[in-house]
Amino acid sequence: MSLKSYDVWLKGLILLSAGYILVTVTSIYLPIIFSIVLAFILNPLVNYFTGMRFWPTSLEIGRGIAVLMAFVCTTILLLIMGTFVLLPFMHEFDKFIIELPALILRIQDISINIEQRAILLEMPVNINTLIQQTVANAASFSADLARRIFQAAYGFASSIVQLVVVPVLTYYFLKDWIVLKEKLIVMFAVDSRNRVRKVIEEMGIVMSGYLRGQVLISIVIGLIVFGGMYLLEIEYPLVLGLLAACTETIPIVGPIVGSIPAIMLAYLISPALAIKVVLFYIIVHQLENHIVVPNIMGHTIALHPVVVIISLLIGGQLLGIVGMMLAVPVTALLKVVVKQLWNI
Question: Does residue 221 contact residue 245 with C-beta atoms inside 8 Å?
Fold first, then answer.
């Protein structure tokens, strides 16, 4: 067997080993994903600091120091948010968790009451069955929502040790990104390196724009929902605002899912208030589609809605809610690869 054949077999064995490791060590994905997201978000701030000079000299600020300065600014911002947002939110969330079983019982009582009224009205059998199924689904959704909240809290608590490495990984991603990129590029054939470099740079631009835009959109929508729920005097406005900000990361279906708890809480007070909440979320959705997203996100992703929906279905089938959150950016990155490698 020739030396070239040995080289091909060795590369194939390395790729298979790497694939096996990636499949088996899924627990390390969370801190790596967090680190990459933070690196993309903080990179513009780091670039800004690297363009500054030490006064009164003309010495440039090194990238390592710029990364530390960005960390300090981020830490100060998080402390301010923790004081004015996180502490009130934790108090409200604790109250929500304590009262959640009682809320579920109230929703179930309302569902039984609706079913009884539907029977008294002597509606056609098919309509009566449809009402009963809808009410039963709403009640089961409430129970499922409670279960998911507890699971998410437990999952986050169990992953807190892994997240300790996030600042370290983020530091090296920001400081040595160019070095890491070049080390990856030299693994390809010489005549392919320019194209690979172009693919990586375009993927970085798309991902950076998407992540920063998505974070800003989530913050804006979360604040709008918090303000609306507070003015409408719905209970737990901070929890509902954070829920809206989180579900905003799932295109199309996310805002709908985020509105359901608010509508149900409003319905516990009165059906008229629930209608007002529905109208509020419709207005927010229109503002999001026609003002917020176009001005913040622009054409960073530029995916057709059909492609977005299909990617959401695939992501949800593979990884559940996390898969739906990752579906759109992953699809956008695949679009870049296909466009560059196949000239589509």
Answer: yes
Residues 55 and 144: their CA atoms lie apart, in Å, by 58
Encoded tokens for 309: 């929906």
Which neighbouring-strand residues pair with 335? none
- Residue 83: C-alpha distances to residues 95, 143, 164, 215 (Å): 18, 32, 22, 20
The CA distances from residue 295 to 202, 244, 249, 289, 309, in Å, are 21, 19, 17, 10, 22
Whole-number Å distance between alpha carbons of 321 and 208: 22
Asked if 27 and 155 count as a contact pair (C-beta separation under 8 A), the reply is no
d(CA 14, CA 8): 10
Alpha-carbon distance of 96 to 268, in angstroms, equals: 14
Task: For the beta carbon of residue 216, count every other beta carbon within 10 angstroms.
Answer: 15
> pLDDT (tens digit, 9 = 90+) per residue, 288-307?
877 877 777 666 677 777 78
**Distance of alpha carbon 241 from alpha carbon 207, whole angstroms:** 25
Task: Give the mean pLDDT of 201-216.
Answer: 84
pTM (2 decimals)? 0.73
**R_g of the chain, CA atoms, integer Å:** 25
- Is 90 exceeded by the pLDDT of residue 55? no
Cβ(257)–Cβ(321) below 8 Å? no
Least confident of 201-205, 255-259, 277-281, 291-295: 291-295
